[in-house]
Amino acid sequence: MENKIQMFMHCKKCLEERGEGMSPREYASFEFGYTKKGFQLWCTRHEENVIAIDLLGQKVAYDG
Which partner for 55 in 7, 13, 24, 38 could form a disulfide, CB atoms 3.0-4.6 Å apart? Predict the structure, then answer.
């Protein structure tokens, strides 16, 4: 499997405070997981939600 991500999600606060010359990927501190409704990306540095995705009860397939 290869990385097929077309657009990355980042914490706004992390983007603002990361050091010069440091990429968002290097500075990121995330947890990603299932919720009762879908998925959530959580910034562990700022203890804030980055994005929550509600699947609206739909069953989804995934690449494994």
Answer: 38
